[in-house]
Amino acid sequence: MEIVNPALHEYLIAHASPGADEVLRELAEETHRSLPPGLAGMQITHDEGALLSLLVKLAGARTAVEVGTFTGYSALCIARALPADGRLIACDVSEEWTSVARRYWERAGVADRIELVIAPAAETLRALPREEFVDFAFIDADKTGYPEYYEELVTRLRPGGVLALDNVLRSGRVVEPAAQDPGTVVMRQVNDAIAGDRRVESVMLSVRDGVTLVRKL
Ligand SMILES: C[S@@+](CC[C@H](N)C(=O)[O-])C[C@H]1O[C@@H](n2cnc3c(N)ncnc32)[C@H](O)[C@@H]1O
C-alpha cells in the first residue's frame, strides 16, 4: 500500500512524534495479530496518525468527523488532539471492528469525546446539520463513496477548517491508464474535482498511500 520504499517508510515512522505510545502500539499489534494482512493493512500507520493529530491541533479543531473507523487508530489520533470538550463523530458499518476501537478509546481516556455511529456513512453525513460547523474531517472508507463523503463534508466545513482524504494515490494506480478498478476510477475523478474546487485550497501529499489536505476558503 505504501508508495515510498519500505526502509524509508520505517525511517519516517521512527521520526514522527510522539515516538512510542503504548496504547497506539498495542492497538496496532492487536489489529495485525487478529486480522489477516489484507484487512489489518487498512489501518493507518504511525506517521499518518501523527499527521492527523498535528492537523487537528493546527486547525484548532473542536468538532471533527471521521468516515471509516475500523479498529479505531485514526479516531484515537484525532480525538486525543481535540480539547477535552471536543467531539468526534466516527462513522463505520462494522460493529465487530469498532468494538476493538471502543476498548482502546476507553484505555486512552478519550471515549467520552467520540460518538460512534454504526450506519452507512452517507446516511450519517446527510443527517448532520446543514451548517458550517465541522473543524476537521478525515475520509478513509469505501473509495466509491468518496465523492458523496467529500461533498457532504466540504459544505459543512467551517472556513479555515481542514479535510484530509486517505488513499488518494491508490498505490500509484491513479497514474496507470490500465488500472480501471472502480475505486481507482472514482479516485481519479475525486482528485480532479478537488484540484478544480474553488471553495477550497488543497495539496496532495505522498504520505503512505497518498493523503490530500483540503482547507475551506
Ligand atoms: C480503511 S478502513 C479505515 C481505517 C481507519 N481509519 C484506521 O485508522 O484504522 C475503512 C473502514 O471503512 C468502513 N466502511 C466501509 N464502507 C463504509 C460505509 N459505506 N459507511 C461507513 N463505513 C464504511 C469499513 O467498515 C472499514 O472499517
UniProtKB/TrEMBL annotation:
Gene3D superfamilies assigned = Vaccinia Virus protein VP39
- CDD domains from the entry? AdoMet_MTases (cd02440)
A Gene Ontology biological process annotation? methylation
What are the protein's UniProt keywords? Methyltransferase, S-adenosyl-L-methionine, Transferase
Q: Can you name one GO molecular function term for this protein? A: S-adenosylmethionine-dependent methyltransferase activity
Superkingdom to which the source organism belongs: Bacteria
Stated name of the protein: Caffeoyl-CoA O-methyltransferase
Native species = Streptomyces aidingensis
